[in-house]
Design brief:
mainly alpha, flat
Length: about 150
C-alpha cells in the first residue's frame, strides 16, 4: 500500500469514528435531555417514562462496553500479527482465542444473549446453528482433504 493510500485509510477511519460518536451523542442527548423515551407519547405516565429511560440508558451502556471490548480485541489480534508478538502456531492460537472471546462479547452485548430463563431459546438456536455450520464446514474439509490425497 502506498503512503497516500494509508493516509486515506486513516482519514476514512477517523471519519467513521467521528460519525459514530456524533450519532451516539445525538441519541443520548435527544432521548435523555427531554426526560422521556422518544417513542413514548406526550401523555405517558412518569413511571413508564422512568422505566423506558432506565432501559434505554442500560442498553446504551451495554452497547458502549461491547463496542469498546470488540475494538480492544480486534486491535489486540492485529497487534499480535503485525508486530509478531508470537510465532506461527502460537499467534494463530492467540488470534482464534481472541475471536472466540469477541464472539462471546457480541452475543452478550449486542444480541443480549445470556443464561437467563427468557433467553435460553435464543441461546439454543444459536448453538444449534453453530453445530450445523461446523458439521457442514467439517464435512467439506474432509471431502477436500480426501480429494487432495487421491490426486497426489
Amino acid at each position: 500500500m502506498t503512503r497516500q493510500g494509508s493516509t486515506r485509510g486513516a482519514v476514512l477511519l477517523k471519519a467513521v469514528g467521528a460519525a459514530g460518536l456524533i450519532g451516539l451523542a445525538r441519541i443520548v442527548s435527544g432521548g435523555l435531555a427531554a426526560g422521556r423515551h422518544p417513542a413514548e407519547p406526550e401523555g405517558g405516565s412518569s413511571a413508564q417514562a422512568d422505566d423506558g429511560l432506565h432501559s434505554r440508558r442500560r442498553d446504551l451502556i451495554t452497547y458502549g462496553i461491547g463496542y469498546g471490548l470488540a475494538l480492544l480485541l480486534t486491535c489486540a489480534a492485529f497487534a499480535v500479527v503485525t508486530w509478531r508478538w508470537a510465532a506461527g502456531a502460537t499467534a494463530l492460537g492467540v488470534v482464534f482465542g481472541l475471536a472466540l472471546v469477541q464472539a462471546v462479547v457480541h452475543f452478550r452485548c449486542f444480541l443480549h444473549i445470556d443464561f437467563k430463563r427468557s433467553a435460553r431459546d435464543d441461546l439454543q438456536l444459536i448453538l444449534f446453528s453453530t453445530l450445523i455450520i461446523a458439521l457442514m464446514v467439517g464435512g467439506t474439509l474432509v471431502v477436500l482433504v480426501n480429494l487432495r490425497m487421491r490426486m497426489m
